Amino acid sequence: MTADFRADRIGSALRGENPTVLCRLDAGFAVLGDVQFLPGYAVLLTDEPGVQRLSDLPRPRRLAYLADLDRLGEAVERACQAADPAFRRVNLEILGNKDPFLHAHVWPRYDWEPDHLVRMPVWLYPPDHWRDARYALGPAQDALRAAIGAELDALR
Fold this sequence. Notes:
Elements: H1 9-14, E1 21-24, E2 28-32, E3 42-46, H2 59-83, E4 87-93, E5 103-110, H3 115-118, H4 127-131, H5 142-154
Antiparallel strand pairs: 1-2, 2-3, 3-5, 4-5
């Protein structure tokens, strides 16, 4: 996986060049997150370049985006629950503090997480979890990628 797509995640998804894309949805792209220290972490990207916040979308597109987020969240929940009996729940977040484009995070949470983090926001994980190569998206996630994709199809 090259870093080139990261410079323009939405444009690369629209061009079919973003390797993290699971599928195109009605108002965005379901993608796997760059880091996978919580297996199944996914993101919903808007499919409209230049849109920075949910309120930038006209109401019908906004509702379609939120419906896509619901679908992606349920797909991640189903796939992660089937893959790991320690699955707890899914957390959905629209933040936008770092990347200036509309995107929503879908974080699976697990019982095996450290006690001091399992009930806290995922952003409190140590910095090494965000940059350690062992947590980088790669072939180890192929089965979970396929399972989330299959669940997205089933929820269509």
